[in-house]
Each structure stands twice: as C-alpha cells, then as structure tokens.
From TrEMBL:
Protein name: Cytochrome oxidase subunit II copper A binding domain-containing protein
Keywords: Copper, Metal-binding, Signal
Organism: Sporosarcina oncorhynchi
Record's signal peptide: 1-23
InterPro entries documented for this protein: CcO_II-like_C, Cupredoxin, NosZ/Cyto_c_oxidase_sub2
Predominant subcellular localization, coarse grouping: other
Cellular compartment(s): Cell envelope
Residue ranges occupied by any Cytochrome oxidase subunit II copper A binding domain in the UniProt entry: 92-267
The keyword DNA damage is annotated on this UniProt entry: no
Length: 267
C-alpha cells in the first residue's frame, strides 16, 4: 500500500513537471511570436499618371513593384532587409528601401519596352534579413497577375512639351565643371535654382547630388554617370558637345518622371 502511494506521488510530480514545461513553452512562444520569418507583402503600380494600381502594361510604361517586410515575431518593419523581385523573363531586380510620401517601403521599377515579350509576366519576391527569410507570391487571380499587352492602336501618352527656354549663346556662356544638383520631391535644381548646367567638352566634370527631401538618385543619359545614393558624386569627361538629359535613377514616388534637368556640353 505504501509503495502504491509513493508511485502515485511520483506520477503526480511527473505530471506537474510536464505541465510546467508546457507552460514555459507557451510563454516563450508568446514572447517570441512563434516561428520567425520575414512577412513580405505589396503591390504593383504604373508610373504613368502617378502610381496607379495596374496589372496590364504596355511599351513606354514603367511597372513599379512596391513591397513591405515585417518581422513575424514583432510585426515591425525590418529596415535592413534585402528584397529582390524575380521575373519569368529571367530578370532579377534588387529593391531599394526609402521614403515615399508619408511611408517607408521598398521599390524597384521595370521599364516596359517594345522588345518586352507580350503575355503573362510572372513574378515573386524574396527577402532576407539576418536569420529571417520570406517570400511573396501574388494571388493566382486575374487582378493580381501581370501581363504585357500591345498598345492596340491606342495613342501613347504624349510627352510634356518643354517650357520655352531663354536662348543662350553657347560660344560665350559661362561653364562650370563642378555640377551641384539638389533634389527635392520632385525636382532637380542647382544652388541658384537653375535647371540647365553648362560644361566644357574634353574636360573632367564632377557631378554631386544632395537630396534635400526624399530619396533620389541621379543619372545622365548617354553617359556612365549614375549616382544611386541620396548624397553622392561622380566624375566623367564629356567628349561630344550637345544636350544630355539628367533624370532621377531611383523611383521616388508619383512625380518621379518629372524629375529632370539638362546638362549642356559646349566646345
């Protein structure tokens, strides 16, 4: 009888230990949020007209991916996450984190050209941040799936007409090989508010970008200048006189396509 009571006490004590361990596990899971992974979500918009939700794109448009990444344990944004878009074309696009309007998230733009194959464009997004990993795939329903379509005879968006500029005598115009560009949402301008910069051909040019508002980049067409940091600089030597478009190389919001200026190279 005594042995039986001791056995019962031992069983009860073991059960209490098991219950205690379960309670500790539940407490730990509650504190850590359970499984740890990167929760990725987002959408796609058209740059034409300014960040319009869309699933059909045609030549001349820019398909913009917008994503967010949260820690599953804390439900807080993981700002140092590396996100990448994988396209069925084989292209892989590295996303850039920044401020857009009143929110912070990751974006990358995919230009649609006449060479872009028409039809379904499949994609998914992967992300990593330390020991956190995650993946996003759109719902398999028409509004969430992307497609590249022909213009079907519709007129393409008319480019904005350039504002008449004051004629400048390029033989006497003052040049400056140090091009200082300040960026705000959504405009490029020089220290004096100028939007046209004059430099000499055959001499090194230093281009510096200062982002006073928002996250921007700077590139000059037909050159290898591409400053992708909000504040950075680059040097190059223009050989051919002419006009070169300066544009924002980092998608920055609804007015991204309006962020242009002009570099004029004179003899």
């Amino acid at each position: 009888m005594k042995n039986k009571k001791l056995m019962m006490l031992a069983l009860l004590f073991g059960a209490l230990l098991v219950l205690g361990a379960c309670s500790e596990d539940k407490k730990e899971n509650a504190e850590t949020g359970g499984d740890k992974f990167l929760m990725i979500s987002g959408d796609t918009v058209s740059e034409q007209g300014g960040c319009v939700l869309a699933s059909r794109y045609s030549a001349g448009d820019k398909l913009v991916f917008r994503m967010n990444a949260l820690d599953s344990r804390t439900n807080e944004q993981v700002k140092d996450a590396n996100l990448k878009v994988h396209l069925s074309t084989g292209d892989e696009l590295d996303m850039v984190y920044g401020t857009h309007g009143d929110e912070d998230f990751w974006v990358v733009a995919y230009p649609v050209t006449e060479e872009t194959p028409t039809g379904s464009l499949e994609y998914y997004v992967t992300g990593e941040a330390g020991d956190l990993k995650g993946e996003f795939r759109p719902f398999n329903v028409a509004p969430s799936l992307l497609s590249i379509v022909d213009l079907d005879g519709e007129a393409a968006t008319e480019p904005k007409e350039d504002v008449d500029e004051e004629e400048v005598d390029l033989s006497t115009v003052e040049t400056n090989q140090n091009v200082e560009v300040h960026a705000v949402n959504f405009e490029f301008k020089g220290p004096e508010g100028e939007k046209v910069f004059y430099v000499k051909a055959g001499e090194e040019v230093k281009v510096s970008l200062t982002s006073d508002e928002g996250m921007h980049g700077l590139a000059i067409e037909d050159t290898d200048v591409n400053i992708e940091e909000a504040n950075g600089e680059a040097t190059f030597t223009p050989e051919k006189p002419g006009e070169y478009k300066i544009y924002c190389s980092v998608f920055c919001g609804a007015g991204h396509s309006d962020m242009t200026a002009k570099l004029v190279v004179v003899e």
